[in-house]
From TrEMBL:
Residues 50-144 form the Methyltransferase type domain. This is Methyltransferase type 11 domain-containing protein. InterPro entries: Malonyl-ACP_OMT, Methyltransf_11, SAM-dependent_MTases_sf. Gene3D superfamilies: Vaccinia Virus protein VP39. It holds the Pfam family Methyltransf_11. GO terms for molecular function: S-adenosylmethionine-dependent methyltransferase activity. Keywords: Methyltransferase, Transferase. It comes from hydrothermal vent metagenome. GO terms for biological process: methylation.
Length: 273
């Protein structure tokens, strides 16, 4: 697996910021579920931090709940941070900074709750990220986050492998995006001093065809992910073969099926420092 390039990730999400809300339908559905988890905590007068805030859908709603005296929102992409600022709507408790989790300007032990929606699959060093989060949390502070597990986009991987096999070629699986390994995630969190629990569930979405699916990924900033770009899926010939194979094996009455494996992370720092 190639190491992730923060620069490429930042550029891709920066470019996609204006179109993100229109195409991030699945991402916003998961964000809604995460928001409901937060509401269940019954926090009051607390400080919440979201890293990888994207276009600000979750951060702005957290700030508007009335539970938090401050909502801190960070994103590595300048365009995403700008979109989040536009969602303030006069709110005086939402603070937005362009930064990633490794350089977020947060004082040690000042955050009651850290949240993150579908970001960990872009993080290469889980332990480093968890350590930064742990440092920011107050004793007993919580982390609620979602990420995408290894079952995500399984149909696409199977289809690409079948197409290449039909041509007598082998696909090196390392060119696909490496989604989150829940076991490694737990190990990293515990090494960082966090008590962690995870839940997993599978969501199957449908798209008209593979062209619509890939366009939706591109419009939310995934065009530079290690798997899709490395395969050269922009080449018309191979994309047509992949489309035909996908339709043969994963087509439903509603369109092509796309699997997302969603992992909910619920972690906490020790009650005493």
């Amino acid at each position: 697996m190639r190491p992730y390039s923060k620069t490429r990730i930042m550029q891709a999400f920066d470019k996609s910021a204006p179109s993100y809300d229109e195409y991030a339908i699945f991402q916003n559905e998961v964000s809604d579920e995460l928001l409901n988890e937060v509401k269940g905590l019954n926090l009051s007068g607390a400080v919440v931090m979201e890293f990888g805030c994207g276009a600000g859908t979750l951060s702005s709603r957290l700030a508007g709940l009335g539970h938090f005296k401050a909502a801190l929102a960070f994103d590595i992409a300048k365009g995403m941070a700008r979109m989040t600022r536009l969602r303030r709507n006069g709110s005086d408790n939402l603070f937005v900074v362009q930064a990633d989790i490794e350089n977020a300007p947060v004082k040690k032990g000042c955050v009651d709750l850290a949240v993150s929606n579908l970001v960990f699959q872009w993080i290469e060093d889980y332990e480093s990220a968890f350590r930064e989060i742990a440092l920011s949390l107050k004793p007993g502070g919580r982390l609620l986050a979602t990420t995408l597990g290894e079952g995500t986009f399984r149909e696409l991987r199977e289809t690409v492998e079948a197409v290449f096999a039909a041509d007598g070629k082998h696909v090196d699986r390392s060119i696909f995006h490496k989604f989150t390994d829940a076991r490694l995630l737990k190990e990293a969190a515990r090494k960082a001093g966090l008590d962690i629990h995870t839940r997993r569930r599978t969501i199957v979405k449908t798209y008209k065809d593979i062209y619509q699916f890939l366009k939706s990924l591109k419009k939310i900033g995934v065009q530079n992910s290690e798997g899709l770009s490395a395969l050269g899926l922009g080449r018309r010939g191979i994309l047509e073969k992949i489309s035909n194979e996908y339709n043969k094996t994963h087509f439903t009455e509603e369109g092509i099926a796309v699997t997302y494996e969603v992992i909910l992370i619920d972690a906490a720092s020790p009650q005493t420092g």
